Structure formats: C-alpha cells, structure tokens
Amino acid sequence: MQDHLSLLLVVIPLVAAPVAAVLPQGRLPWFVALMVTSACATLAGMQLWAVVHDGVISYELGGWAPPWGIEYRIDVVNAFVALIVSGIAAITLPYALLSVEKEIPDHQIPLFYSAFLLCFAGLLGITQTGDIFNLFVFLEISSLSSYALISLGRRRQALTSAYQYLIMGTLGATFFLIGVGLIYAQTGTLNMMDLAERLPGVSGLKTIHTGFAFIMIGFALKLALFPLHLWLPNAYTYAPSVITVFLASTATKVALYVMVRILFTVFPNGFVTATPAADLFVLSGIAGILSASVYAIYQVDVKRLLAYSSVAQIGYMALGIGFASAMGVTAAIIHLFNHALMKGALFMAVGAIIYRIGACRMENIEGLGRQMPWTFGAIVIGGLSLIGVPGTAGFISKWYLVLAALEQQAWISVVVILTGSLLAMVYMGKVIEALYFKPVTETNIVVKEAPMLLLTPTWILVIANIYFGLDAEFTVGVAEHAARALGVVAK
Description:
Blueprint: H1 5-22, H2 28-54, E1 57-60, E2 71-74, H3 76-103, H4 109-128, H5 132-151, H6 157-187, H7 192-202, H8 206-223, H9 231-238, H10 241-266, H11 271-274, H12 277-297, H13 302-322, H14 326-357, H15 373-387, H16 393-407, H17 411-436, H18 452-470, H19 473-486
Antiparallel strand pairs: 1-2
C-alpha cells in the first residue's frame, strides 16, 4: 500500500463523496466522512514518515512516465501540508456531528458531507500533484464545493458571501489558468520538475514574466493576500461553524503551499529576487498585518473579528516568503502549521458558543466566561497563541519571523511583527473583557457548558498549541527540511 499512498489520499475521499450524497438522512453520512478523514490522516502521516526517511516519492498515473503523464511528486513540503489538511479534517469531523445537526437542515446533511469530502479531496489533490494543470483541476474541485458549503450557513448573508467568494475565486482561477497557458506556450510542458529544468533558458522572456504575474495574482486571490482578501471576512463569518474551522485551518494554507512551490521550485533559483515579487510580498504582508489587525479591533462579531485576524496572519506568512531566504521560508512554513492549530481552536470555541446561544456577537457573550469555562478557556489560550505569548505555538512562529527579519536587517518588518502582536492583544482583549469583566445579561443568566463532543476536538487543538509552543523540534525540523527541499538558499 505504501507505493500507492499519494494516490489513495485523493481517491478515497473522491470516491466517498458521491456515496455520502446518496446515503439516507441521519448520522451515517457523518460516520462515512469520519472514517474517510481518519484514514487519510493515517495515510498522510505514513507518507510524511516515508518521505523524511526514504526521500521523494514519484507516482506515475496510468503508467505514463513524466513529463508526458501526470505525476504525483511528494517531498517533505507537500507531505507536511497534506498531513495538516487531513489531520485538521480528522479532528473537525467529531466536532461536526452536533454542530452540523444544529446548523444544517436534516435533508441537506448527506449533501453537506458529500461536498465536504469533495473539498477535502480537492485540497489533498493540490498537495499531491506534480502537474501544474492538474493542480488547476483540483483547485476547481475544492473551490466549487467550498462555495456550496459556505452557502449552507443559517443566515441569508451566507448566500451573498458564497456568491462573492465564487466571483473572486473564479477570477483567481482564470488568472492562474492564463498564467499556466503563457508558460506552457514557451516551455511545452506542464510537469513542475520539467518546468524547473526548462524555465532557466527562457526566464528572460516577457511572456514568462507575464505568466508568473498572472499565476501569483491568481493564488493571491485564493490565499486572501492583502489587498485581495475582501471575500474572506464574509465567507468565514456566515459559513457554518464547521466549514469556518476547516477552511480557516486548511484552504489558505494549501494556497500558500502552491505559491511557495511555484516561487522556489518551478521558477529558477534567484527569479524571485530578480523581480519585484519579493518586495511585493513584504509590502503586502506588512499592509495586511497592520490594516487587518486594526479592522479586527472594531468588529462586534467574534467570528468576523477572527476572520480579519486570519488576513493579518496570512500577512505574517507572506512576510516570510518575501524574505526569500531559508530562514524566512522556514518561518512561513512553521506559521502555516501553527496558525492551523490556533485558528482551528478559536473557531471551534466560537462554534460551541453558537451551538449554545445561537449567536457570537460581543453583547451575546457578556459575562459567559464563568458559565462556559472550558469553551472560553480555549478562547483565552488560543488568543494567547495568536498574540505570540511564550509557551504557545504562536510564539515560535513569530520568533522565527523576527530572526528571518534580523538576518536581513529588515528593521521595519521587525517593528511590524511586534506591532501586530500588540494589536492582537487589543482585539483578543476585547473578547476576554466581554467574557469575564462585563455583567451577565438577562438572556445569559443560565447557559450550559458546550457538549463534550464539541469540547474534546477544541481542546485537542488547544493542547497542541501549548505542546508545540514548548517543544518545537518537530515543526522546526520539518520546516527546515522543507525549505531545503524547495531549494531556498540561506542568506
């Protein structure tokens, strides 16, 4: 089975999706999705172990050798991202049982899990493929299912949010496809490793530079990189709680992986620094960190506050990429993992609030800190990680980002990273103030703690935030190995 790990990770959820759609109403579709995500998480862990110990995996689909056939090519970078996607999905599914039953009409639940598995398969396919057009196919699978999942939110705004995401996502996919077409016209290949060999000879052509720009803009839209982030706050705010957890923890991470792969593997070494791309990433990262953090401060809906926080956190990752150094890319990959943990925990806790009181605005949570201590304890610890307090995973991310900035004497970036932490302290402080320092409202006099089925996955991620903040050997080791696999040179 080890020889087929990369294919199984995509095929299993892809086959299970239509099965879930035709199952009767009830908990059977959830059970199928739970088994699929658990199996994929196990396979992804085996794949990462195999890559770390045995080297790159190359799987030829249909027996057609690359570059003529489609190749799944797995190194430490995409094996790590595949583990994040499948691990988060496996943790999210137990949480989904009660949350989905509360927020989704019974007759739509089988279709919900079918779309979830399609989105899951698309994201895993993006991480596995070594073919740049096949990447576009999986991008569309994950995107189309995401639009449907967001539209299932309880409030009417979910439909307009899904439509806005559809328009922006379609624009991003179109830009990406045009860029791929321009590059194919000059190289005659779609295989990523074959492109890496052919592009140095034509990298000076304007067509290649134009194609590169189109691809970067396309995935900047998918990543919600500032200022192309306008779809994200509404999508996260009005989507069902489970989908907000899943997309916030995985979708933007996969988009970041694609950008890193194209920047440092497909295009020749030094291409990034020879173009304005690196400086644009730094500028976008700085602007995103500051502006989105300020926007978060003024939000009265906790979900929307965390959505703007996600835009700011994407800015930190963009900053690491913009440094175009081994340390910078290592920091970006570390934060890719840590942000999935912290934001997954926070959105799960918010989903538990919605499960109990049906809303998550500031006035709805006033004084609830002592009535739902486990739920709001998760928010406090997740918030500390978001701020970057020592002893949490968020501190490790920001420590390595600061080291990467100091390595290049980028003093402005250091100030921005520290300022971003202070702004995070302000907007998370607002939430904590409402929970513990505001009087209980009449509607919040008696509120029960969230069920264990919601709390357990939440606290798994909370404990992971603490564990990987105290022992970062795994995340740092894999991220450094990934930077080397990408061919990023130390500065």
